[in-house]
Amino acid sequence: MTDELTISTVARRAGVRPSAIRYYESVGLVPAPPRVNGRRRYGHDVLPRLTLIAAAQQMGFTIAEIKTLLHGFAPETLAAARWRALAERKLPEVEALIARAHAMKRLIEASLQCGCLSLEECALSLRPPLPDESPEAMDRGDATGAGVSTPHCPDAPSRWTPT
């Protein structure tokens, strides 16, 4: 028995599709393996690489960022330094995503309070404010008030209130 693995064996062990492995190869995340009779034959060393790629994807890193992790540093750069450099750039993106998810949750929760009789009425309370409806204009009392709770949705906070 040989130590070489077929693409289907690698895919099964790594929990990915063979097409993903071929894609990773095409973009340079996985080195091209030797071929026997035209078929890819991988060494066992590809499995940790695929695990690393999967972990990075679960953290939200893009293919380009994973490529940087693998190939964008001097060869002697420690793994910890590579992760730190990428994580410091990624963390603000993740924090913004979390903030957006919280805003989405508040809007969905507000929709549970809706008492509108039609979707058109809801649209009045859900549309973005016009330029003269900025929070500053609202504070001065010279805004039209659209984009805030309506009589139809009195308990629903505005989608557009600052967080």
Counted by DSSP, the helix tally is 7
Q: How many strands in all?
A: 2
Look at the structure and give the CATH class of the domain at 7-96: Mainly Alpha
CATH architecture grouping of the domain at 7-96: Orthogonal Bundle
| Relative helix content | 40-55%
Rg calc: 26 Å
Mean pLDDT: 84
Straight-line distance between termini: 62 Å
In words, what does this structure look like?
It is a single chain. By secondary structure, the protein is an all-alpha fold. It has a domain at 7-96: Multidrug-efflux Transporter Regulator, Chain: A, Domain 2 (Orthogonal Bundle). Helix content is 53%, strand content 2%. It is built from seven helices and two strands, in the order ααββααααα. It has helices at 7-14, 18-27, 46-58, 63-71, 79-111, 119-126, 135-140, and strands at residues 35-36, 39-40. α4 runs antiparallel to α5 (79-111). It is elongated.
Note the topology:
Blueprint: H1 7-14, H2 18-27, E1 35-36, E2 39-40, H3 46-58, H4 63-71, H5 79-111, H6 119-126, H7 135-140
Antiparallel strand pairs: 1-2
Helix pairs in contact: 4-5
Q: How would you briefly describe this protein structure?
A:
This protein has 7 helices and 2 strands, in the order H-H-E-E-H-H-H-H-H.
List keywords for this structure.
163 residues, mainly alpha, Multidrug-efflux Transporter Regulator, Chain: A, Domain 2, 7 helices, 2 strands
